[in-house]
Structure formats: structure tokens, C-alpha cells
Input
Amino acid sequence: MAAGTHQIVPRRRGWVFDEAPAIWLAPLGVLLAAFYLWPALQVVRTSFTDANLMEPTARTTLDSYRDVLFYSGLNEIGKATLVFVGGSVVGQLSFGLLIALALDAGAKRKLPGVTFVRVAVLATWIIPGVASGITWQLIFSESRVGFLNGVLNAAGMRSIAWLSDPDIAIWSATLANIWRGTALSMILLYAGLQLIPGSLYEAAAIDGAGRFQAFRYITLPQLKPILLINVILVTIFSLNTFDLVLPLTGGGPGRSTEVLALAVYNTVFHDFNLGEGSVLAVMMLLIGLGMTAGYARLLR
Output
């Protein structure tokens, strides 16, 4: 090649993710918009109407918001939801952490039965919510077939109105939801425990730290991001739970166990009121977004 000339090197064509991320993310964006964003916008639009499944026409109005916000039963629904979600978050995180710690210790010592316990806990998670509700309805039953009251009677104690006492029923439903969702917390926390370097515990042992001190100053700080993510997921899942409560109590006695998600279901499919049901759904959406934003701020 003559001096002073430039050699042209052909550039190989191909997609580069760093240079064109929008192309790769576009299909996911379309799916999210079609199956999440558009239905959510439709719910918001319907909340500003008096739509009813019994009537073909609907007019734009704020009556649905007025009827829901000034409805006397909204306080009972809010109280039941607060107890159900709050109790589920505390219970699932606590039991999930205890089981994860036990499995982690058993795996490190190579104890038999660790895999069986892991599978048994995961089995509670894959059971459908309706099946879980029916199972716990039999466990809490106040008839002769009730498991818990049968145990109490065999021990010489009197039966407890697990599902017919308004003050106890909401805690019974919360216990059932804790049993169902503990597996998710256990999975996340167990994975987080595997990421903690063993050298930290070795250094703490050399410095004379006990097990409780190691748990407080090493385990918990290392698990903090996973715990916060866990709180977000458990809160959202518990807030959206109605399939377990429906066969367990149906929202009763009275409205003591009618959580917000179940109230949406009853308003739409029992009362056929799309407008008010959409208002309750919008409230669920705002609560979920608010909690998620708050937890995301804590993560930073």
C-alpha cells in the first residue's frame, strides 16, 4: 500500500446492548404497558363513573368517591387491613428469619433433614390461596372436626371461637397468611445468609464476640437491604390477598376480616358496583405505591 494512504477496516455489524438498550427493553415495555399500565389506567377512569354491571350505561361523576369515603364500613375495612398486613409483615419476616438461620446453621454443619425442611416450607408457598383458606378453615373449625379445638379439648381446655369471634377472627386470618407467606421470606433471607463472608464471623470470634453479638452486629447489618426488599414484597402481597380470606371467613363475622382486597372483590362481584369497586382498587394502588416509595427511600 502506498505511503500516505489510509486502510479502511470494515466494522462488524451487530446489536450492542450498551449502545441500544431501548431496543432490548421495548418488548418488555410493551407487555408491561398492555397488561399492567393500561388496566390500571382503566380502573382509575372507571373510578370517576357510576358504572354498574346491571346497567349498560355509565356517567362521569364523583359520587363513587363520595360514597366510599363517607361509608361507615370503611373504618372497619381499614382496621382489618392494617392488622392483617402489619401482622403478616412482622410474622413472615420473623419466622422466615428464624427458619433461614436454622437452615443455614444446619447446612454448615451438614445435618440431615435440611433439604426436607426446605422443601416442606416451600410447599406452603406453592399451595393456592383458596386451598390454604379451606385447609385453615378446617383447622380453625369450631365443630368436632376442628384440629385446634380438638387438641385443646383433649388437653382439658375449652374451645376457642377462632372464626366466629370478631376480635379473634382477624388474627386467625393473619396467622394463616403468615403460614402461607413465610416461605418467600425464608428464601430471600436464606440466600442473603449465603452471601455473608465467613471471615466476618471468624474475626468476631477472635475478638471475643458471642453468637448474639455476631447476629446483631454482623448478620442483621448484612441482611438489611434484603430485609427491606422483603418488607416491600410481603406488604404488597398481603395487601393484595383476598383468595385466602374468602374461603376462610368470607370477610366475617360482620366485617371484621374484610380486608381491602376482599372489599374490592365483594363490591364488584357481589354488589356489581364497578365504580365503587374501582375507587377501592385505586386506594389499594395508592397505598401500595406510597409504601413502595417509602421503602425505596429507606433502601437508599
Notes: The radius of gyration is 26 Å.
